[in-house]
Amino acid sequence: MSFKPHCLKLIFLLACAEHCLSQETEQIDADVINRGFTGTESPEGVWVSQTAHMVLDSRLTTVFLPIVYIVVFAVGLPTNAMAIWVFLFRTKKKHPAAIYMANLALSDLLFVIWTPLKIAYHFNGNDWIYGKERGFIGLVDPQDADRVTVSKATADTLRSSLTTVFLPIVYIVVFAVGLPTNAMAIWVFLFRTKKKHPSAIYMANLALSDLLFVIWTPLKIAYHLNGNDWIYGEGLCKVLVGFFYGNMYCSILFITCLSVQRYWGVAHPLSQQRKNNKVAVAVSVSIWAFIWLTTTPLYLYNHTAKLKDPNITTCHDVNIIHDLEDPFPDVALPYFYFVLMAGIVFLVPSLVIILAYILLLSALGNAMTDGSAGKNRRKAVVLIVTVLVTFLVCFIPSNIMLVVHYSLLKDGVVNNGYGFYITTLCLASLNCCLDPFIYYFVSEDFRDHVKNTLLCRSSRTVERMRVSFSSMKYSRKSKAYVSESGNTQSSTC
Predict the structure, then answer these.
(1) Where are the membrane-spanning stretches (predicted)?
(2) Beta strands 319-321 and 137-140: pairing type?
């Protein structure tokens, strides 16, 4: 028997198998080159394949992914914050499962607070601008003194989805939520709240401050949707900037007053109500006068800049520099203004809020023997904690970035993190949406007034209902109010 034919067949099969394996390897390598996000470094930058370019420019990464992250942020932030709040202030018995769930919620929250950067990254065409050259510095064009030239990075950012899609979406949400809720809050405080206690006075002024900013946001929305082209003149640009920062500083001061008042109400529950109301009114008038005076410098220098390329007029975006070797004279006024305001109207109130919170906890601990008093004091603590969280989320990033931005700008540093700066300012504007919900969920009187207003109940009707139900007893068996004569009435109105 000859083995030669069998050896030839075996060699032929091995050769075919090797050929197939080599073709499969080449196909895999080709797929990796075409699909894999691998780059080849060159002196001009990093080269990627055409397929990678297509994916990076596709709607998958510039539309779908940021929408998913927006949903994650919109749902994850309030739910995980609420979970942590419930565990800290509502759960008396800290069993192991609750401890693990609280830590899980904290882990989720620590990720969620950074998702705005991820959203901005994808909306900006997958272009990471936090740490790159993004200095919004404009130089006067030597050929045309009325025009300003900016770098390619600045022009690309002004055309990007970050400033023309993401920012207007945020301001649309601020307007859609902040306008009706703050208007409703002011109406309730003015026409439904009979007893004007100091906290109500401060909350009404805070709602008024938010409303005065919200009514100007349509101009901000139109500006960004128009490709960051301001068409309303220098005067309205100054008004918009003045109301924006005026609202931010005014909100900080009224939140500070609200925190101090809550501590005072816990520590001195028997203080004269009428005297406290007069003090609250005087403090509120003083704050409005202070804000009116301190926002005046914002009207003393121009905020618009006519760019050569792109051919647009920006509002409070591009800082015009005449001499890059000595940029300080061109930004001296805003630099001193924002540094001073950050120290006086941000840092000092922050310390006052922390001190008021510590003193309130101390006063709360000394009065826990009284059940009803302890319940009222716990409500005050919940309000301060909720307001404090809103204060920290909305105002700390923006005020820190204001100081950092202008401190680097005065030294001519191009890498001034402008993308993160404008993102934090958007975050600050969300305070207008959060304050009314703070009133609703924390203040029981405000919640009842809003409910009666939405049900179109007049004050006289509400009073008759209160008197009627106070003379009845609630039956758990029939789930209805039963009068002393035995007649049953429904608990709904």
Answers:
(1) 63-88, 97-117, 165-190, 202-219, 239-258, 279-301, 335-360, 381-406, 418-442
(2) parallel
